[in-house]
Design a protein that fits this description.
single chain; four-stranded antiparallel β-sheet; mainly beta
Length: 122
């Protein structure tokens, strides 16, 4: 049973930084492409960032490019999302997702976490 548990969300002010973590209970974590998505109230789920299972490829949504950085630690079975220069429009529930041998350009993921709330005040 694959479990993804996000942490690190919270309430911050515009311009602040946060680092989200997603701990995965996957024995073969290094074979999973990992992604971050977010969903704001009244909006559809939005792709934010992905890192390939090989860790050689990353992809970002235009809305976060240059501000957010995705990384992974295959020893700790954890993927991170470093979020800098946060804006009020970044407010959402952030979800991590996993897909074995997935393409970094895909938005279809096999497993999803429960999400962590990020609120950015102006």
């Amino acid at each position: 049973q694959v479990q993804l548990i996000e942490s690190g969300g919270g309430l911050v002010q515009a311009g602040d930084s946060l680092r989200l973590s997603c701990a995965a209970s996957i024995r073969t974590f290094s074979t999973y492409t990992m992604g971050w998505f977010r969903q704001a109230p009244g909006s559809e789920r939005e792709f934010i960032a992905a890192i390939s299972w090989s860790a050689f490829g990353t992809r970002y949504a235009d809305s976060v490019k240059g501000r957010f950085t995705i990384s992974r630690d295959n020893v700790k079975n954890t993927v991170y999302l470093q979020m800098n220069s946060l804006k009020p429009e970044d407010t959402a529930v952030y979800y991590c997702a996993a897909d074995q041998f997935g393409a970094v350009g895909s938005v279809k993921y096999e497993y999803w976490g429960q999400g962590t709330q990020v609120t950015v005040s102006s």
